[in-house]
Specification:
The chain has 342 residues and is mostly beta strands. The chain is built from three helices and 20 strands. The protein folds into two domains: 67-189, YerB-like (YerB-like fold, 3-Layer(bba) Sandwich); 212-335, YerB-like fold (3-Layer(bba) Sandwich), CATH 3.50.90.10. Strand 10 (224-231) and strand 11 (236-241) form a beta hairpin.
Length: 342
């Protein structure tokens, strides 16, 4: 077994016009960071740790309240399907990547699947999203060489294929790179200090008043689309990909009790792949509009995240907390203004 070096670097949180020369960030008035550089680590806290929540802050449920947090980057294109382990996630993010395609980032805490995958490489937007989770473990297959230093500085525990190879394996008939899987329990053994779940802004409870009856919604990117159709029988929104049911390898169709279409500005980061296609940077701090799907209804909402280390809150059109249905939450990040390749 290889010696595993866990890399975490703490640094002060950038504020106002105080910029890190290493990261080369440009701070905007709404808290966004241009150029695709990740947020610095928050300063270590000297206060007494908060008691465990009564309900899980990711699902509103009662299980796994003190379990560590693990995020895994998963392929979301046709050759990778059906995916494994996604149905067990607490939160599933859908993010745009190069070429207008999408990838998933699945966040686990309340329960763990036996395996998860196909595991793929990380992107800069992952680091911005994960900073609100404290210090989770983050699993991915690789990363662009120019981004490695930002992974080391991010507030997380790296459990990539490079650093924790014993937790990864190839299986099944799919060709490389669509056959790489990981064992979540072994991943967490490689990150024994991974943080417990904390408030990321979600609120759970009875549905707010209002909303419009809706049976289906489609999210679009330049080269992909995902639909979500309400199932009264299963009491959740069933996912489709490119018009076909988005099936889970374990059986059934993927989908969540709550689906959030979060409209966020998408720009070009300073990273690109070997073909020269630039990596999108999704601006998940600031504020914007959202469409929240729960219980067969669609609610117009607003999202707000004041800084990188804070959670993302959602409010109704009337300014009240937008409550989610208990269970798995999908956060589908789409560009404000329509699909585009930055």
């Amino acid at each position: 077994m290889r010696l595993v070096v866990r890399r975490t670097v703490r640094g002060p949180l950038a504020a106002g016009g105080a910029l890190s020369l290493l990261l080369g960030l440009v701070a905007c008035s709404d808290g966004r960071r241009e150029g695709g550089s990740p947020p610095p680590s928050p300063a270590p806290s000297t206060t007494t740790p908060a008691p465990a929540p009564r309900t899980h802050p990711f699902t509103g449920g009662s299980k796994g309240l003190g379990n560590p947090v693990l995020a895994v980057k998963i392929e979301n294109t046709r050759p990778a399907m059906p995916q494994t382990g996604v149905s067990a996630a607490d939160v599933v993010y859908v993010e745009q990547v190069e070429g207008g395609e999408t990838r998933l980032m699945a966040v686990y805490s309340s329960r763990l699947p036996k395996r998860v995958g196909p595991v793929r490489s990380a992107r800069i937007s992952d680091l911005h999203l994960l900073s609100q989770y404290g210090r989770p473990a983050f699993a991915f297959s690789g990363v662009q060489s120019k981004m490695k230093k930002y992974i080391r500085k991010a507030p997380l525990y790296e459990v990539s294929q490079e650093s924790s190879g014993g937790a990864y394996f190839r299986a099944g008939p799919k060709p490389i790179p669509y056959n790489l899987y990981a064992d979540p329990r072994r991943l967490l053994k490689e990150a024994p200090k991974a943080g417990a779940p904390r408030d990321i802004g979600f609120r759970f409870g009875a549905a707010p008043k209002g909303g419009k009856a809706r049976t289906s919604v489609t999210a679009r990117w330049p080269a992909a689309s995902m639909g979500f159709t309400w199932s009264a029988k299963q009491k959740r929104w069933l996912a489709s990909f490119g018009g076909s049911p988005d099936r889970a390898a374990e059986g059934g169709v993927l989908g969540g009790a709550t689906v959030v279409l979060q409209y966020a500005k998408t720009t070009r980061s300073k990273f690109h792949d070997f073909l020269g296609a630039y990596t999108p940077l999704i601006h998940t701090t600031g504020e914007g509009r959202a469409l929240v799907l729960r219980d067969g209804r669609a609610h117009d909402a607003r999202w707000s995240r004041p800084s990188e280390d804070k959670g993302t809150t959602f409010t109704t059109a009337g300014g009240e907390p937008m409550t989610f249905a208990r269970g798995q939450v999908w956060v589908v990040l789409v560009n404000e203004g329509g699909p585009k390749i930055p």
